[in-house]
Structures are given as structure tokens and as C-alpha cells.
Write a structure and sequence with these properties.
Elements lengths: L1 H22 L9 E3 L6 E3 L7 H5 L4 E9 L5 E8 L2 H11 L3 E2 L6 E9 L6
Length: about 120
């Protein structure tokens, strides 16, 4: 009986993962970070690695991250605004390594990363 319940739980997990993968549109765009508000210029960008599990499950899509930038241009915190949980970690890890132009005060930017099937090759 426990084996049947475990198998059902596992099947449910995979069904949810597949549904999530199908809900995210697959595009042929490059994995490109774009800033929706361009008040701070980026000095150094790091491109995220396409996560292996996302690649295996054919998950693609856009990840939006809110980034808080210190006056010296370092990313001090991030908050996920949207995107697949399978892609968010890679995008967050990459944007934490970004460096911005110095400014007189701390600022907040929204950064988007596009993960696509073209990047999986």
C-alpha cells in the first residue's frame, strides 16, 4: 500500500512539473538580461547558466528579479518578481554578481532574464 501511495505522489509531482513546463512559453530568444528601468548603468554583467533540470524538462521562459543596488554599485539584495522556480536560482545567482555605476544613493531595478530552447544546445 505504501508503494502505491509513494508512486502516486511521484506521479503527481511529475504531472505538476510537466504542467508547469507547458505553462511557460518556449521562445527562440537568447538568454539575455534586460533592465526594464534604465536609471543605473550596468558595468559588469554575468550571464546565468541554464539549469540542467530545466533543460531536461524543456522549461523555458522569463525570470524577473527586483535588485537593490548600493550606492557603490553592488547588488545588496534580490527579490523574485516572477518566473519558473527551476530558472529563478540561476538568474538570481548571476545578477548578484553584477556591478552597477556608482550613485549618490541606493536604488532598485527590475532585471529580466530570458531562458529559451535555443540556449539549451
Amino acid at each position: 500500500m505504501k508503494t502505491t501511495i509513494s508512486a502516486l505522489k511521484l506521479a503527481g509531482f511529475f504531472a505538476l512539473a510537466i504542467a508547469l513546463g507547458l505553462a511557460i512559453s518556449v521562445t527562440a530568444q537568447e538568454l539575455v538580461p534586460t533592465a526594464s528601468s534604465a536609471s543605473r548603468k550596468v558595468r559588469t554583467k554575468v550571464t546565468p547558466n541554464y539549469p540542467g533540470l530545466a533543460r531536461q524538462m524543456n522549461v523555458a521562459g522569463r525570470v524577473k528579479i527586483e535588485v537593490t543596488i548600493s550606492s557603490d554599485g553592488r547588488v545588496v539584495s534580490t527579490r523574485t518578481v516572477g518566473g519558473s522556480p527551476l530558472l529563478v536560482g540561476a538568474a538570481t545567482d548571476a545578477v548578484k554578481k553584477w556591478r552597477y555605476e556608482p550613485s549618490s544613493k541606493e536604488s532598485i531595478e527590475i532585471v529580466e532574464f530570458e531562458f529559451s530552447d535555443k540556449d539549451k544546445d
